[in-house]
Amino acid sequence: MVIAKYRMCLLLSCAALSLSLTLYVSSAVKNVVGVIARYMTALKEFRRGVSMKVAFDRVGVDRNTISRTAAIAELSIAAPEVFRALAPWDEKEETLAHYAHRCKQAMDDTIKAKIKTMKAKGELLPIVSKVTDTVC
Length: 136
Fold this sequence. Notes:
Elements: H1 2-22, H2 32-47, H3 52-59, H4 63-78, H5 80-85, H6 96-106, H7 109-121
Helix pairs in contact: 2-3, 2-4, 4-6
């Protein structure tokens, strides 16, 4: 009887734990709109005054994942006209990482300066890419 009661309590605890974990698990982003939405969600969490790590944990994404695709969202926010002029992403021909690389290449010095200023003001995530111009 005691063992059955303990087992039931343990099962309920595990169920509650798995339920709370599923709240923070996000699905894989499969397009540019999803990348921008995920970035904006992380930015919204970061603006609430939490660290980037906590913001990324709440969104359910790794820092490197955001970092690798941040150029897409940053270009779309800082220079929407350049972003719209860029050839659209073709999911059959290129990966999101390659499209992010194209977005980085489309940034001139004025756009890079604007992005840096926006990061300093808190209008963009203060992510500094650790990887230098590599294409995945």
